[in-house]
From TrEMBL, chain A:
Its main location: membrane. It is a multi-pass membrane protein. Part of the tripartite ATP-independent periplasmic (TRAP) transport system. Belongs to the TRAP transporter large permease family. The complex comprises the extracytoplasmic solute receptor protein and the two transmembrane proteins. It comes from Aquimixticola soesokkakensis. It comes from the Bacteria. The gene is siaT_6. GO terms for cellular component: plasma membrane. The chain crosses the membrane at residues 35-53, 73-92, 112-140, 152-179, 199-223, 235-254, 289-310, 322-344, 351-368, 374-398, 419-440. The keyword Ribonucleoprotein does not apply. Keywords: Cell inner membrane, Cell membrane, Membrane, Transmembrane, Transmembrane helix, Transport. GO terms for molecular function: transmembrane transporter activity. This is TRAP transporter large permease protein.
TrEMBL record, chain B:
Residues 23-146 form the Tripartite ATP-independent periplasmic transporters DctQ component domain. It is found in: Cell inner membrane. It comes from Aquimixticola soesokkakensis. This is TRAP transporter small permease protein. The chain crosses the membrane at residues 7-26, 46-67, 88-106, 126-144.
Length: 444, 172, 313
């Protein structure tokens, strides 16, 4: 539809003002990200809408309260809860214990065991930072005892942790689904194969490192067969829980929310069966899940308010028009977007990237005719990479915070092999979108 | 204030925890019930009511534990004076935003009450749930007040590890 | 010069979107000689069930209001949603609009907004997946996908099992074999990509029920328009119910029916459906009477327009 020229001009001005303020506030102050987005969104809508602040508040309130009452969004806190219960039940330790007993005695084996355990944990937790923080406590000490290079062992956990947002469940995919109105279930299904590919490539990276730099990754202690099978027996529950959630999604037995409820309930029963649950532990777990969920809720609210500003500004439509005028082929546009994301990923990470860019970028991708489920997976892969690339790499910082004696440069150096594998994976998914989509199509 | 805040903290945690348990219960029952051709009609709507209460109670807990996601890429490079100014400015804006948010949720509840929106399964008005959420969120303001009062007494929290911008700060 | 924000929650290639939104907006601009311009946001400013309050809040100036989202506030326009009352989208849209202007408008429903047009989806029919639904026996115990609302009761009255999922999940519901039949039109079945999985098409005259929409403008904004601007909008809206209805019928007629066996109005099934269908009509009459309307007269008037329009088709 034809817009009046003055509104158009105002849109561009408003966009510059709003995003200028946004960037200034998030770089120069430590005001909570969610509040910054809500404020900028309201300000921007008020600038553009003929009814000013009246309309801005009405829109913002509606977005925030609708999100709070959005049954689909219940998926997020429920999966957070599942992850918390899984840790409390000691399942993360069991995962590593199992992997360590089976392959830890090989050269580089403990590194590979770390990757495998991270992958298993990722199947139960929707967060990368939580994965890295949890697995660091479990995996790093045995590697230190086996004289692993400290930078490399920290890097294995930092990189392995990123799988948390690709292998379902994934907080990042839930948020992407919410912002794009894609199906959470389909995005989860789409993340499975690329996630397993990541797991596979990372294990290979561990093997290659052990071969090229034997001093980085020596062999760990050997365990007997009895020990190995005993450890295997402990993790069946993890595998069963994950399998039930995933099969339920693929075969349409569960909605995503039900899968989450089922997972949380199952993880709880598991920790009870393990004798790890007490009233105190339950209260602590509930509080932790509430804290993480509330924190994500605020940022998601902000993103939705900002989303409405972008909508009213008509900017996404203009951007689509502008890009098509450039005469680039759709695939070149995709490559440009990825280059933009990679640069952004150096400085921002995790949810911030998704929240800030999806409203503007996704309409462009949709207009080019690409599958938005596929693009969701690509976005998450880029976010994963951002978590381990300098100068700002969240997972690396988490490891650094937990291992104060290891220099950050050494961790970033240790990340290199995994980064190479990430780039391979990114190229693969760009060249063969079916990696993400075939299981989705199977489930349809 | 500090005692009040302690009670409110327990209150919010209890409400949010009970909502979480109920949400798990509803989804568990519905997903199994449907396999047995006995779906729990209205489970979705019940979950949406619980979710509203859960999120606003949890948001207050986030405030109490000072656990919001923050970025502040350049803040660490500030000289001490500027850093302090940023802290005061940030705290002020945060308090204003929290108050604004509380007002917005109340306002939304009032609008829903005016228009009389009812749920589609349980034909009940939606606004009481939103008012309840707003009241729970009101606790966040008390928690901010507590933080302001105790800040100068508490030994300053060790700075976050360099660069760990968005690591939620856990209150010890 | 006035700019109006016309919100839509419909996807880009929806038939009623083109007729009642983009074409209508262009016509307003043309009729007003550019004095009234329309801004259509890229995506919706509020979910579909909150369009009315969005207008009242002044967030948008114009929008579509579906009767099934307003069932707590609006009873009269539900006449077009009743069984048998939507033989074609065009006839029903015109009939609803004329009945609204003639008999409903004065009752003062739709407070705070002014209606510019109405349109009605083609009446829903029964699509049998593997087996024909052509008698009370064939329906008994079968699982029917139905939209939320009164059709649930219609299907239950056949001792059949109503199953509801959101429209985007219809495909999944069908491919997993969770239902035996669908209560929808061939056009919707095609949109849900399940038409090739259906074998039988049982027609119910006028449909088992439908959903009607109003194109509304906020009263405050309407009153703020100058007399000439109002006249331009009304000229653009002239004949809109018929145009939107025709577009909806055309979209439905594009469905490829070659693989379907058509079962024209099987008497035994219709007989079984009649009691509940009549109960629904009686229920509407009760609600309409409570609003101070002569319900029988309104129904007779509505049906007379239907007869005129279907005869003219
Ligand atoms: Na995960
Ligand atoms: Na980075």
């Amino acid at each position: 539809m034809v817009r009046i020229p003055f509104l158009r001009k105002r849109s561009k001005m408003a966009f510059l003002i709003v995003f200028g303020t946004l960037v200034a506030l998030i770089t120069l102050t430590r005001i909570p990200l969610g509040f910054v987005m809500v404020l900028c969104g309201i300000g921007g809508i008020a600038l553009l809408h003929p009814r000013g602040f009246d309309a801005a508040f009405s829109i913002a309130e509606r977005e925030i309260v609708n999100l709070a009452m959005n049954e689909q969004f219940a998926t997020m806190p429920l999966f957070v809860m599942m992850g918390v219960f899984v840790v409390k039940a000691g399942l993360a330790d069991d995962l590593f214990g199992m992997a360590q007993r089976w392959i830890g005695h090989k050269r580089g084996g403990l590194g590979m065991a770390t990757i495998l355990a991270c992958g298993g944990f990722a199947a139960l937790s929707g967060s990368s930072t939580a994965s890295a923080a949890t697995m660091a406590k479990i995996c790093v000490p045995p590697m230190r005892d086996a004289d692993y290079d400290e930078g490399f062992s920290a890097a294995a956990v930092a990189a392995g942790g990123t799988m948390g947002i690709l292998i379902p469940p994934s907080g990042a995919l839930i948020v992407y689904a919410l912002l794009t109105e894609e199906s959470i279930g389909e995005l989860f299904i789409a993340g499975l194969v690329p996630g397993l590919l990541q797991l596979f490539l990372y294990v290979i990276a561990g093997g290659i490192v052990a071969r090229l730099f034997p001093l980085w990754a020596p062999a760990g202690p050997v365990f007997g067969w009895r020990d190995r099978f005993a450890a295997l027996g402990k993790v069946w529950g993890v595998l069963a829980l994950f399998a039930m959630v995933m099969l339920g999604l693929v075969f349409g037995i569960f909605t995503a929310t039900e899968a989450a409820g089922f997972g949380a309930g199952g993880a709880f029963l598991f920790s009870v069966a393990r004798g790890r649950m007490s009233f105190g532990v339950l209260a602590e777990s509930l509080r932790e899940a509430a804290r993480i969920s509330g924190m994500i809720f605020l940022v998601a609210s902000g993103a939705l308010v900002l989303n409405q500003f972008v909508n009213i500004s008509g900017l996404a439509g203009d951007l689509v028009g502008g890009i098509s005028n450039l005469g680039l082929s759709p695939f070149h546009v995709i490559l440009c977007l990825i280059a933009f994301y990679m640069v952004l990923g150096c400085f921002l990470d995790g949810f911030a990237i998704i929240f800030l860019t999806v409203p503007v970028v996704v309409p462009v991708v949709a207009a080019l005719g690409y599958d938005l489920v596929w693009w969701g997976i690509v976005t998450v892969i880029i976010v994963e990479i951002s978590l381990i690339t300098p100068p700002v790499g969240m997972n690396v910082y988490i490891l650094k915070a937990m291992l104060p004696k290891v220099s950050i440069m050494r961790i970033f150096r240790g990340v290199m092999p995994f980064f190479v594998m990430d780039m391979l994976r990114l190229v693969a998914i760009l060249a063969f979108p079916m990696i993400a989509l075939w299981l989705v199509e199977f489930s349809r | 204030m500090i005692k009040l805040s302690k009670y409110l903290d327990i209150f919010c945690a209890t409400v949010s925890g009970l909502c979480m348990i109920a949400m798990i219960g509803f989804n568990f029952a519905d997903s199994i019930g449907r396999q047995l051709s006995r779906p729990l009609l209205g489970a979705q709507e019940a979950v949406s009511f619980l979710l509203a209460i859960f999120f606003f109670a949890s948001l207050s807990l986030v405030t109490r534990e000072n656990a919001n996601i923050r970025v502040g890429l350049l803040v660490e490079l500030y000289p001490a004076g500027l850093r302090k100014a940023e802290r005061v400015f940030g705290a002020l804006i945060e308090a204003l935003c929290t108050a604004l948010l509380v007002w917005m949720v109340f306002d939304r509840a009032a609008r829903l009450e005016n228009i009389g929106t009812l749920g589609t399964h349980y034909i009940v008005p939606l606004y009481p749930f939103v008012y309840a959420g707003a009241l729970l969120l009101l606790c966040a303001l008390v928690f901010l007040g507590e933080r302001a009062l105790t800040h100068h007494r508490r030994p300053s929290r060790p700075e976050s590890p360099r660069g760990a911008h968005s690591v939620p700060q856990k209150k010890k | 010069q006035t700019d109006l924000i016309f919100n839509s929650y419909l996807p880009p290639f929806n038939a009623s979107r083109k007729a009642a939104l983009t074409d209508f907006a262009a016509e307003i601009e043309a009729q007003s000689g550019g004095e009234v311009t329309i801004t259509i946001p890229d995506s919706t400013l509020a979910p579909s069930d909150q369009q009315y309050e969005m207008l009242l809040d002044g967030v948008a100036d114009m929008a579509f209001l579906a009767t099934d989202d307003l069932s707590q506030l609006v009873a009269l326009n539900g006449i077009a949603d009743l069984p048998g009352n939507a033989p074609s989208a065009r006839a029903a849209s015109v009939a609803l609009w004329e009945t609204y202007r003639e008999m409903f408008k004065s009752a003062g429903e739709y407070k705070g907004v002014v209606l510019l047009s109405t349109h009605v989806l083609p009446g829903r029919q029964i699509m049998g997946l593997d087996d024909p639904i052509d008698s009370a026996e064939s329906a008994r115990g079968a699982k029917f996908w139905v939209p939320n609302g009164p059709l649930t009761d219609v299907i239950s009255s056949l001792d059949a099992v109503p199953v509801h999922t959101n429209f985007p999940e219809v495909f999944e519901t069908v491919s997993k074999g969770l239902v035996d039949a669908l209560v929808m039109t061939p056009g919707s079945a095609e949109a849900a990509k399940v038409l090739e999985r259906t074998k039988y098409y049982t027609t119910v005259p006028g449909g088992l029920g439908s959903v009607s929409f109003a194109v509304a403008i906020s009263e405050e904004r309407w009153n703020a328009l100058g007399a000439e601007e109002q006249a331009a909008v009304l000229r653009a809206a002239d004949g809109l119910p018929g145009r939107t209805g025709s577009a909806l019928d055309a979209a439905d007629a594009q469905a490829d029916m070659s693989g379907l066996t058509v079962l024209q109005s099987p008497a035994n099934l219709l007989e079984a459906l009649t009691p509940e269908m009549e109960a629904q009509i009686a229920g509407w009459k009760e609600r309409a009477t409570a609003k101070g309307i002569d319900a029988d007269a309104a129904l007779a008037f509505y049906r007379s327009v239907l007869a005129r329009e279907t005869g003219a088709n």
